[in-house]
Amino acid sequence: MEQYEAIFYRRSVRHFSKDPLPERLLDNLKKYMMQVMPLYRSEPFRILLVDRKEQPGAVSGPGRVEAPYYLAFFGQDTMLGRCSAGYLAEQLTLYLASREVGTCYQGLARLKEQPPETQPELKLLFLVAFGISEETFREPEEASRLSLEKLAACKDKLSEESRTILRAARMAPSSMNSQPWRFVVYRNRIHLFARKERLGLKTLERMRDVNMGIVLYHMMLAAEELWLTADLQVSELISERSWKNNEYILTLYWKNL
Ligand SMILES: Cc1cc2nc3c(=O)[nH]c(=O)nc-3n(C[C@H](O)[C@H](O)[C@H](O)COP(=O)(O)O)c2cc1C
């Protein structure tokens, strides 16, 4: 299965087998971890693979799923840092799904110790549990997601490109399935907005930023699937304005090749 297809079929796994993954798969994962594309080149990050066999008590925290392996994502604890980490993590979860490996984001899980050689400004932002599971896939229509009508306001007639990108975006996983993304859609661009966090809880706000990075990766992957030349930019005009319920994040622009 390709990464793009995995967008529609992967689901969060909460029961993992204790069986180890093949060495070759882990080696390839480690190589892929070094090739992931950052959202912002200037954002420092670190990704660490935790093998529970070697570090049995390394992961703790609420909502934690027991798994044989975890990926730990470190970055700056800022909006950009968290968004960037979500963008990186979704590349890896889709990579793992494309190899039939189950995954589950772990927003509140923690590592017992900050690993040595981690720059002090990098904080653990979240983890992703992974391993062999029988629950790795489901049919796309079984996913509980808001309809595109609820998520997107279309300013032009919806182009085939926009429709494909929105379908991929809609399937993105999010903390507590909150789906905080909203889209304003034109023929060759989509403005991405995030719902404002109403409860004012820092943890929810942090996870929302991670969610926005995840959805951005789905949008970019769909654009790539369509062979579009796509770019993410901040529209100055839009970022200067403010909205009651939403916050502007970025705009995806594209051209046909
Ligand atoms: C940033 C983030 C944090 C999450 N944290 C947890 C968690 O702590 N525990 C858990 O069981 N699931 C967690 N999830 C998984 C979501 O609950 C799940 O993605 C969502 O309900 C949609 O379900 P699906 O991934 O099966 O489509 C998290 C997902 C994201 C994106």
Automatic annotation (TrEMBL):
- Cited InterPro entries: Nitroreductase-like, Nitroreductase/BluB, TM1586_NiRdase
Q: Which Pfam families match?
A: TM1586_NiRdase (PF14512)
Protein name, as recorded: Putative nitroreductase
Q: Which Gene3D superfamilies match?
A: NADH Oxidase, putative nitroreductase (tm1586), domain 2
- The domain of life for this entry's organism is Bacteria
Residue ranges of the Putative nitroreductase TM1586 domain?
A: 4-223
Q: Which GO terms describe its molecular function?
A: oxidoreductase activity
